[in-house]
Amino acid sequence: MNIVLKTKLQILIPVLVLGSLSLFAQDIHFSQFYNAPMTMNPALTGMSKGDIRLNGLYRSQWKTANSPYKTFDVSAEKKFYNINHDRWWFSAGINLFHDRAGAGHLTNNRVMLTGSYTRMLDRHSFMTLGAAVGVGQRGFDLGNLTFDNMWNGDVFDPTRPPNEAFDDTNIFFPDLGTGLNLRRQWPRSRSKVDLGAGIFHLNKPNQSFYKKDKSSLPIRASYYIMPTVQVNEKGDIVGAATAQNQGEYFEALVNVGYRYHISTQRSKEIAVQLGFGYRFNTIGDAFMPAAELHYRDLMVGLSWDMNVSKFSTATRHNGGPEIAIRYILHKVYPIKLFKACPLI
Hints:
With 344 residues, the chain is mostly beta strands. It has a single domain (3-338), classed as Porin (Beta Barrel). The protein has helices at 3-20, 312-315; strands at residues 52-61, 69-82, 85-101, 106-122, 125-139, 170-185, 192-200, 220-230, 235-246, 249-263, 270-281, 286-295, 298-307, 318-329. The chain has a 14-stranded antiparallel barrel. A hairpin with a 2-residue loop joins strand 2 and strand 3. The longest helix is centred in the first third of the chain and has 18 residues, at 3-20. The protein is globular, with a radius of gyration of 23 Å. It starts with a helix and ends in a 15-residue tail after the last strand.
């Protein structure tokens, strides 16, 4: 490849990338989706064995492809019981999401407030309705990009103006979501299952950086099932599967693991979990080994994406790591409040 052609390609590629920004921005995307429940369904707000649940998740993706994504997700949620009503309760939470990608530092930020209503169907079955409302932000750094106008015919000149008239490089928009979750748990057992669906971007917010153009963010629908099956006194098989679609994009993930309980003594619980997952989507596939450590009410999880698709030529099979942290807090309530079977 001659120097002139190579230089022109170096200019053209960022232009194509920038042009794609008006078409689609990466939405929530985690391999450990089961450890970021509020990104899957606002109806999962409050669906934990404790009263307050804190979650954090960090993902680094495609660093070896020179187009890295860095994603953070943090959430906190709390149940609100009424001592006079032991068969239903409300929960509320907040979810913060940040994603940055590419040379242009394309950023995607969300601040979402979530709420849910959980109703007991019987002593071991629960139905939860959830809703989310918040604000999103999307922007990029124009100074880090190069354009075809910077080629003067002989050499690349970064001092030349880009000749791109964006109305705004930083936009804000409202965002709405809803969902339904069904929980079934078995008596005198750690076995349980969550089944549900979440719908995000119901208002299809405009994502365009040009005032005269409209580029609506498509609705994202996520469907999932997350079972835990106790197989013996010390061991559980833990699974999680999801299918998500957003416009023309589709993704499906399947995860399975084995959790071994080293100690089940009250307030001294210790467990380790090993497993793996696989991603199917329209872009490529990845194999994801994963591990978790559970100590009392603290969980730390680690997974690593290993690309097995054609894109592995650019990533060298390294999609990137994810680190998850969860902590659950408990309060003491009057005995009357727990006539009903609590969540496990």
